[in-house]
Amino acid sequence: xxxxxxxxxxxxxxxxxxxxxxxxxxxxxxxxxxxxxxxxxxxxxxxxxxxxxxxxxxxxxxxxxxxxxxxxxxxxxxxxxxxxxxxxxxxxxxxxxxxxxxxxxxxxxxxxxxxxxxxxxxxxxxxxxxxxxxxxxxxxxxxxxxxxxxxxxxxxxxxxxxxxxxxxxxxxxxxxxxxxxxxxxxxxxxxxxxxxxxxxxxxxxxxxxxxxxxxxxxxxxxxxxxxxxxxxxxxxxxxxxxxxxxxxxxxxxxxxxxxxxxxxxxxxxxxxxxxxxxxxxxxxxxxxxxxxxxxxxxxxxxxxxxxxxxxxxx
Length: 314
What we know:
Oligomer: single chain
CATH topology of the largest domain: D-Maltodextrin-Binding Protein, domain 2
Radius of gyration: 21 Å
Strand order of the largest sheet: 2-1-3-10-4-11
Number of strands: 11
Number of domains: 2
Low-confidence stretches: none
Number of helices: 11
Shape: globular
Largest sheet: 6 strands, mixed
Structural class: alpha/beta
CATH superfamily of the largest domain: Bordetella uptake gene, domain 1
């Protein structure tokens, strides 16, 4: 009887996967409207919807570094009608919060969507015209003061990775958000801030900040004059920021692969790619297996940074 039951269950599941999708699909976005995660979700929305033949409904559920939305998706029915779109903070949250889900066990990676590098921004009036200037100045009494969006944020871990790679003393000054921290840099009250490309590009072009280096492995097309950290002699400080999509863990593999194909196809549309580049990002299509490997590597890497930095979750 048990064998018959499981055979019948498999047949129903397989039939459901073959019929997918037969109704609108919900993308739960882990941050509020207007940010990079929300914007790229809406850029992809129409192309993926057309490919699947069903509407894509974007639902913003911010809070706790993206873990509020992630929790909701982890608990959702694995039927292919609820997915998560979130930031790389996904791989940091297990180190910061007591979560009601397991990042690796309860969610299935669907596709990396784009990389979202950060630029090390300083006030143009400072003596820091390059990362070499920063390293030289950091040995002076008091060191360098840098801002972030808060303890344990992606920017904080990035700057800790930079500190560990460069071996110089820097002091963390947490803020409530990017706008507040960038205001302090522009006013000259803190030395630097790891600014999201979306914010840093325009401020650099307007002359309000100088961007000394970018966190990504390659230079940004819209900021080709800004070197990578590897190019300034700090390859170990490279830090990957990204936006990606996940499904509840037991979602049928065929559905995960189908959505992946549609997202990847959308990323290869020139109009889509141009819009992502305009946000300061780079399209980053991956297979589910490749994305899963990236997530697991980053969870381990962030754990090492937290341990080496001595940071204690608040």
